[in-house]
Design goal:
- One of its GO terms (molecular function) is phosphoric diester hydrolase activity.
- The structure is a single chain.
- This protein has helices spanning about 20-30, 70-75, 95-100, 125-130, 145-155, 170-180, 190-195, 210-220, 230-240; strands at about 5-10, 35-40, 45-50, 110-115, 140-145, 160-165, 185, 205, 225-230.
- The chain has about 240 residues and is α/β, with parallel strands linked by helices.
- The protein has a single domain (about 5-40, about 100-115, about 125-240), classed as TIM Barrel.
- Strands 1, 2, 3, 4, 5, 6, 7, 8 and 9 form a 9-stranded mixed beta sheet that branches.
- Helix 5 links the parallel strand 5 and strand 6 (about 160-165).
- Helix 8 crosses helix 9.
């Protein structure tokens, strides 16, 4: 089996994460998939950013949930990474979907709902409204650390592939696997390494797989996929190990 290479927050290692330039780079590099994160703004808009606050990756401060989309769009989301990317903006979910359609991207679009710290009432329904019913070129996968979000999304779109994210606790992942609500586990690579002698018989896409040793380990194990900040590095290693 050829192990899928999914670009974590776009090509996060070489571009400002979760921006249009990061997603374009991942597509250009030939990544099999793109992973990203969605939050809800104060005025109920779906925005693409990893943290609950804008502090780390923009020139602003404060929680996403306390800012309107107009306020969020004023923030510089590229300068923290490099002066080359000054004035990159935080995209909306719709803008990312539009990009993937424009690029005719046939890979995986792994959307993580960031509801493990802030619950964002109604976010699952809003995501569904954007992603329901259209003939998208990409293959949609939902994931979350929050079991409730996975359950709600499964009720809304039972045909869509889903995965449980976790660092340590596998309780929800095991329960959802038995009920066939999810198809994969997305564990941390640290968890995978610590359980290497008794890994469960489920499809795994570990995160965040960046070192050459970890990438090679996952390819040797023929995992379904890896989520990495450096898709180009992983693609080169995969060609040597798996021939593609």
């Amino acid at each position: 089996m050829i192990t899928q290479i999914i670009a974590h927050r776009g090509s996060k290692g070489v571009r400002p994460e979760n921006t249009i330039v990061a997603f374009n780079k991942a597509i250009d590099e030939g990544a099999d998939g793109i992973e990203t994160d969605v939050h809800l703004s104060k005025d109920g808009k779906l925005v693409i950013i990893h943290d609950e606050t804008v502090n780390r990756t923009t020139d602003g401060e404060g929680r996403i949930f306390d800012k309107t989309l107009a306020e969020i769009k004023k923030l510089d989301a590229g300068a923290y990474f490099s002066e080359k990317y000054v004035n990159e903006r935080i995209p909306t979910l719709q803008e990312v979907v539009d990009l993937l359609i424009q690029r005719k991207y046939h890979g995986i679009f792994n959307l993580e709902l960031k509801t493990d710290k802030i619950k964002y009432p109604g976010i699952e329904q809003k995501v569904y409204e954007v992603l329901k019913g259209e003939d998208f070129p990409f293959h949609l996968v939902y994931s979350s650390f929050n079991p409730k979000s996975i359950s709600v999304l499964h009720q809304l779109q039972p045909e869509v592939e889903a995965a449980s994210l976790f660092k340590i606790n596998t309780k929800a992942a095991r329960r959802f696997s038995r009920r066939r609500i999810i198809q994969e586990w997305h564990p941390s690579i640290a968890w995978v390494r610590s359980h290497r002698f008794f890994l469960p018989h489920v499809q795994l896409r570990p995160w965040t797989v960046n070192s050459e040793d970890d990438i090679k380990y996952c390819f040797k194990k023929n995992f379904k996929g890896i989520i990495t900040d450096y898709p180009t590095r992983a693609l080169k290693i995969r060609k040597k190990m798996q021939g593609e």
